[in-house]
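Translate structure to sequence.
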């Protein structure tokens, strides 16, 4: 099985460089022909969300739809789909939340951690996320 980097996934999603898109598509098609879906690790998913938001200025709904489509695709396998599904759900429920915070706290919960500690006030509004209070 092969895993892909963020730049390959972004080419597939935005198709802004046709030669790179075609090369990435051939890779996916070959993996599919070999019955070996391409792996997308969680770090690549986090980077992809950031690139789509910051570089391509895509809105949250478009990015969430792209991630949901990846979850449903037969061409790829995402590392730990339950964490990604939970992150998408929480991200949708909390309009000002960052996808990264949603995914990291979801993954921690799936790894058996009931608390996810942070200094980030905004992130602490998410379920299972706890704000660390600083003392002076």
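Result:
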């Amino acid at each position: 099985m092969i895993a892909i980097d963020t730049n390959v996934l972004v080419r597939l999603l935005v198709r802004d460089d046709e030669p790179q898109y075609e090369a990435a598509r051939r890779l996916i098609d070959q993996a599919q022909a070999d019955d070996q879906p391409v792996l997308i690790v969680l770090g690549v998913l986090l980077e992809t969300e950031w690139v789509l938001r910051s570089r391509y200025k895509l809105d949250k709904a478009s990015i969430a739809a792209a991630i949901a489509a990846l979850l449903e695709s037969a061409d790829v396998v995402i590392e730990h789909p339950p964490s990604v599904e939970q992150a998408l759900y929480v991200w949708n429920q909390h309009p000002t939340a960052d996808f990264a915070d949603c995914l990291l706290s979801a993954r921690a919960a799936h790894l058996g951690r009931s608390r996810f500690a942070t200094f980030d006030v905004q992130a602490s509004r998410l379920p299972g996320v706890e704000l660390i209070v600083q003392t002076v």
